[in-house]
Design brief:
ABC transporter substrate-binding protein, SsuA/THI5, 2 domains, signal, D-Maltodextrin-Binding Protein, domain 2, 15 helices
């Protein structure tokens, strides 16, 4: 459920990949609009690829619901959901290898300031559900309590910058935290072996901890600064896709929005659909996670997927202040609500 450990490496490779590819797949730019069935005649469905950021989980449920319920077929589309390749989802989307994928505001921001043409077209979750988590026996109740503890991460400069930001607010010193790369170990293995806390999405790892009977102290980063209440994850496309085939994006988001709306209204049924599509997932975890996460997809937004300019501006300003990006972001170009369906 956490972001890829190779985000920075993938971003560094994107410009090379884009230069090599330079064009969208012909299948992504061919005309194939309209419903799957009209007037008794069946039209050929248009194949559309979507790449996940990680293994399937409840961040992705709306996609699987829309696929199972035929919402994509109603738009004349046949969705193929892919796992990311070695270069990562952002590279695949930015290069035009696939038209859509899961990304994060953080990586879209980093990418765009390096000339990578990613654009966020929908927020999967309206508010940041991530934060620093520790078993309760580590007595981490506030950011200052990170002092003297060991943090396990994936090696991104963003981690220490966020930690420093919230520790500064609480009067703590980030230099008193031991930071290590936890590698491929999962959270539960790592906290038993060599770390005290890590950055998690509560909807997955936090819910799993509840089911295991291993209570956590959870410090949500958004609770310490409005600038850290950013969109994670998002659905992204690339600038060429927007220019060449905006109607495909509209059709894709009409179906996807229906999938997430269904998951909001029917979390248990949506969980069953995800489990049917990915039977290797833990049933109890998926159901409990879906119940926790479904209300948070849209939350206080006017419609699912909607993004605010202020959220993009605030977070990119924070990244620039912390020297995580080399120049300010043109926030208006980094996202768009133009392709989301209007509320009915």
């Amino acid at each position: 459920m956490h972001r890829s450990k190779w985000v920075l490496l993938a971003l560094s490779c994107l410009l090379v990949i884009i230069a090599g590819c330079g064009k969208a797949n012909n299948a992504n730019t061919s005309a194939a609009n309209g419903n799957a069935a009209t007037g008794g005649q069946t039209k050929e469905l248009r194949d559309v690829k979507f790449v996940l950021d990680w293994s399937p989980n409840t961040n992705h449920t709306g996609l699987y619901v829309a696929q199972a319920k035929g919402f994509y077929e109603e738009e004349g589309l046949k969705l193929d959901i892919l796992l990311p390749g070695s270069g990562g989802a952002d590279a695949m989307v930015a290069s035009g290898e696939v038209p859509f994928g899961i990304s994060y505001q953080e990586s879209v921001t980093q990418g765009r300031t390096q000339g990578v043409p990613l654009v966020s077209i929908a927020a999967v979750i309206q508010h940041n559900t991530s934060g620093f988590a520790a078993p309760v026996d580590r007595s981490i109740k506030a950011p200052k309590d990170f002092e003297g503890k060991t943090y396990g991460g994936w090696g991104s400069p963003v981690e220490e910058a966020v930690m420093k930001s919230i520790m500064d607010i609480d009067g703590g010193d980030v230099n008193k935290v031991k930071i290590i790369n936890m590698g491929e170990a999962d959270f539960f293995t790592a906290v038993k072996r060599d770390i005290d806390f890590a950055w998690i999405f509560y909807a997955w790892t936090g819910i799993e901890a509840e089911l295991r009977g291993e209570p956590l102290d959870m410090l949500y980063v958004k609770d310490y600064s409005d600038k850290l209440d950013y969109y994670t994850p998002v659905i992204s496309t690339n600038e060429k896709q927007i220019k060449d085939d905006p109607e495909l994006i509209k059709a894709f988001l009409r179906a996807t929005s229906k999938g997430y709306q269904y998951a909001i209204q029917h979390p248990e049924e949506a969980a069953d659909i995800l489990l049917n599509a990915v039977p290797d997932l833990d049933k109890d975890l998926v159901i409990a996670s879906q119940k926790w996460l479904s209300p948070k997809y849209q939350d206080d937004a006017a419609r699912w997927g909607e993004q605010k300019q202020s959220v993009w501006q605030n977070y990119s300003d924070w990244m620039y202040e912390k020297k995580l990006i080399e120049k300010p972001l043109d926030a208006d170009a980094a996202f768009t609500n133009d392709f989301l369906p209007e509320n009915k």
